Amino acid sequence: MSAPTAARLGFLACHVCELVSRPPTGAAECACPRCGAQLHSRKPNAVARTWALLIAAAILYLPANIEPVMITSSFLGTQSDTILSGVAYLYHSGSWPLAALVFLASVLVPLLKLFALSYLALSVQRRSQLRLLPRTRLYRLLEFIGRWSMLDVFVVMVLVALVNMGALANIRAGAGAMYFGGVVVLTMLASMSFDPRMIWDATGDADG
Amino acid sequence: MTHSGLLACHECDLLQREVALPPGGKAICPRCKATLYTQSNNSIDRALALMLAAAVLFAIGNAFPVVTMEIQGRRTAALVWEGAWRLHEEGETVVGILVFLTALIFPLLQIAGMLAILVPLRLGLTPRYLVPAYRTIEEVKPWSMVEVFMLGVLVSLVKLAHMATVVPGIGMWAFFGLIIALAWASSTLNPHEVWARLEVGEPEPAQ
Ligand SMILES: [Zn+2]
Ligand SMILES: [Zn+2]
């Protein structure tokens, strides 16, 4: 049995104000009668856009983890830190809860977003009818946690702003910070371009 | 042609009828379990009060240092825009712009925009700019990252604690208050109520 969705019954739901309307017959595209936003039954080219942004993010992911995000220089010498060595440093300085938090936000979340969004895009392309609810929940989780990966970028910014004392102690941002910021922005855009309604569209295949 | 009372789930597109909820109630999609809408009384009044508080806290948070650090008698304190500017000066302009936008400009847009919408609505006015303004704010929202920024400040404090004396400033307490005010406002405001009121020329009866 296929469920009564807006798309199957010829309605369009606005993605901005959620108003449900019926487009004039014969019109290929139209604007929302309430808020004026362009109406689409599904986000345009959702899967292709998601893939393009994911691939770009995956390419930046390598330099983001290899290049230093932060360079500390003091009278003791100069030290470069990557994302992972920053986590290791926090761990060894005795604050393991904080190390776990930064590891989660900077290492696990970006990886989870890359793999989970690829899985979602692939399953939609194959019109999989399995695990509909778990996949929707996975998408909801990705939307919620994505922004927290910006954590390390803000840490770098605060340290750079504060530790600014010439020969005594000085912290600069490394190239890794830029790549890492790029990964966060691209994965956020990727999950925004994906349309979770396509997960459920596959259910109507048999009798649609 | 519009169909008021009809609602399509934004996550699975299931078409359903909007029902009146008790205050504090929550409508959940029967198919994908997404939260469809919530109902709270006087949501516009309460959101307006919270947004006014947010505006004050935002101003304080950006006028007073978030943290002050002292190494061997030398002090530094930093504001958000100073941090962004220093990143730019050191050649990390892209990162500087990113933090400038997500920690300062987008939160500012979100607060100023919400006030520009809620104040006229409270007064019963619906000037023409309201609809595009509300649309813009909804699009800016995911990029406004005050709470992530504050977590970053906390992590930085711990990282610095071994090499310097770090003292949280007034700015930090203001930012904590700001996070609470913003989260509360967005959980209390019912977008459906706002959109219903914005519907120019087609006023919907309050339920
Ligand atoms: Zn609309
Ligand atoms: Zn649903």
How is this structure best described in words?
The complex is a heterodimer of chains A (208) and B (207). Chain A is mainly alpha-helical. Chain A has two domains: 1-41, no CATH class; 45-201, Butyryl-CoA Dehydrogenase, subunit A, domain 3. Chain A has helices spanning 46-66, 83-92, 96-125, 132-145, 151-162, 175-193, 197-201; strands at 12-13, 20-21, 30-31, 38-39, 70-74, 77-81, 169-173. In chain A, helix 1 runs antiparallel to helix 3 and helix 1 packs antiparallel against helix 6. The longest helix of chain A has 30 residues, at 96-125. The N and C termini of chain A lie close together (9 Å). The relative contact order of chain A is 0.18. The model of chain A has no long low-confidence stretch (mean pLDDT 89). By secondary structure, chain B is α+β, with helices and mostly antiparallel strands. Chain B has one domain (44-188). Helix content of chain B is 55%, strand content 13%. Chain B contains seven helices and seven strands; from the N terminus they run ββββαββααααβαα. Chain B has helices at residues 43-63, 80-89, 93-122, 130-140, 146-160, 170-188, 191-198; strands at residues 6-8, 15-17, 26-28, 35-38, 67-71, 74-78, 165-168. In chain B, the strands form three sheets. Chain B has a three-stranded antiparallel β-sheet with strand order 6-5-7. Chain B has a two-stranded antiparallel sheet with strand order 1-2. In chain B, strands 3-4 form a two-stranded antiparallel ribbon. In chain B, a hairpin with a 6-residue loop joins strand 1 (6-8) and strand 2 (15-17). At the A-B interface, strand 2, helix 3, helix 4, helix 5 and strand 7 of A face strand 1, strand 5, strand 6, helix 2 and helix 3 of B. The complex binds zinc ion (ZN) (2 copies). The site of one zinc ion (ZN) has 8 residues of chain A, from loops.
